[in-house]
Amino acid sequence: MHTQGLSHDPPGPRPTGKISAVRLSYLTRYARDPLGFVGRRFARFGDIYLIKTGSDRTYVTKNPEHLRIMLRTRAAAFGKPSIGLEKVLGNGLLNANGDIWRKNRRLIQPAFHSKMLRSYADIMVEKTREMAAPWRSGTQLDLAAEMMRTTLRIVCAALFDHNIRGHSDEVGASMTVFQETLGALNLVPEWIPTRHNRRAKHALTTMDRLVYGLIDKRREELRANPARAESTDLLTQLLQIDDGEGGLPRKALRDELLTLFLAGHETTSNALSWAFVLLAQHPAIEARLHAELQHVLAGRLPTFDDLENLPYTRNIIAEAMRLYPPAYVIARQANEDVDIGEYTIKAGSTCTAWIYMVHHDPKLFPEPEVFKPERFEADDPNLRDAYLPFGAGARMCIGATFAKMEMALVLATLAQRVQFRLPPGHRVVPRPKITLTPAGGVPVTVLTRTK
Ligand code: HEM
């Protein structure tokens, strides 16, 4: 498309140097209250603003029209910017750009085909039951931590056909360190052995050992027993990719598996935690959920085929992800000049789309702070670029169907058996880390349901 060369910049805060007192004060204020800080900037400057830091330019938007351009119509003009993830995830799908991304996305996509996904439904329900088995009425727990452990077990079983239990402490600890260290600002070079750098390195070594070990073992198994090739787990699928060039190399397999591992559980876990927080805060909606589950399942465990008959359950999850989108911001780098509304995004600059702010915009979602699953009863085409928990366009989440199925099955399994109650007056505050996390966890008391 021809660029008009629109000359003026969007409004924005005072430009700063990369190392300057003003920038430090912005960063400190952001760190204290990220959502409040960004929200106030949008309130002041409008739907798009420009941050100039030294020679760097970062456009920050919450306008669905801009999202459509970035993610769909001019997606080819943008790439993924470097945000430090590549240190851990290498060239996995989440990070990769250009031909590597295109080739690997095409190769991996079939592993997420609904035929494959169907086979994961029972694992999802089983792991959920295992989590809830020790719970009694009055049990107190951190629901966020329970969900994280369970979604990790589910993704491990789906990826590796591997019961993580034997390694769960090791993997769980490494994942926590990844989440902490990747989400934290680290101004110290990696080779200096600070506590942060040592922990990050140890976590990476542990995960590498585990993932490479699983790849090598499965390759051996496939050689020794070709019938194993029928397994539906992702590792087996990826090992059998036939691209005429010997398939994915060992390092590429490791990058993809670690990416799916990391991308595939924290997001889902947080969405589920938020859904249960909202249900605990909204008894009438919880009662309507119970009625649907009773009507469709009458106490039995849900299956893949039940999902289409559980629209309210699915809408609860959709609305929880509107209010608390786990992937709260999407970033791109412009490879060329791109016109966006009345402005031109300059080649080389970064664009960040604040999904959280789009989802909370009263022009798009009336009474945006109110939890209303009914919003999703009608399929509103106007919201195509305004409701984007899984992104959009060619780089949309590859695990979206997997995640939606997992969340509905976990919700339906648990809500039939238990309710969660927050301590009186307790507020759960969203905290943007790698994903949108409930700050300080979700302390709850379990109530078992009698009916
Ligand atoms: C509620 C759960 C989830 C949410 C909210 C979520 C959200 C997202 C979003 C917004 C993107 C696009 C990012 C961008 O455009 O920059 C994305 C990409 C991705 N997601 Fe998810 N995700 C979830 C679950 C999963 C699961 C279960 C998996 C895998 C098992 C997964 C694997 C990926 C991968 C590999 C990408 C990169 C795709 C590409 O660039 O080709 N996600 N996810």
Could you walk me through the main structural features you see in this protein, from its secondary elements to its overall organization?
The structure is a single chain. The chain is of the alpha+beta class. The chain has helices at residues 21-32, 34-45, 64-73, 86-89, 98-108, 114-118, 121-132, 143-160, 168-183, 195-224, 234-239, 250-263, 266-281, 283-297, 311-323, 355-359, 400-417; strands spanning 48-53, 56-61, 78-79, 140-142, 330-334, 338-340, 343-345, 350-353, 418-421, 430-432, 436-438, 443-448. Strands 1-2-8-5-3 form a five-stranded mixed β-sheet, with helices on both faces. The longest helix is centred in the middle third of the chain and has 30 residues, at 195-224. It is globular, with a radius of gyration of 22 Å. It starts with 20 loop residues before the first helix and ends with a strand. The model is unreliable at 1-5 (pLDDT under 50). Bound molecules: protoporphyrin IX containing FE. Protoporphyrin IX containing FE (HEM) is lined by residues 93-94, 105, 155, 259-260, 263-264, 267-268, 271, 326-327, 330, 389-391, 395, 397-399, 402-403. Protoporphyrin IX containing FE is lined by residues 93-94, 105, 155, 259-260, 263-264, 267-268, 271, 326-327, 330, 389-391, 395, 397-399, 402-403.
Task: Please render the helix and strand layout as text.
Blueprint (H helix, E strand, L loop, with lengths): L20 H12 L1 H12 L2 E6 L2 E6 L2 H10 L4 E2 L6 H4 L8 H11 L5 H5 L2 H12 L7 E3 H18 L7 H16 L11 H30 L9 H6 L10 H14 L2 H16 L1 H15 L13 H13 L6 E5 L3 E3 L2 E3 L4 E4 L1 H5 L40 H18 E4 L8 E3 L3 E3 L4 E6 L3
Bound molecules: protoporphyrin IX containing FE.
Protoporphyrin IX containing FE binds next to helix 12, helix 13 and helix 17.
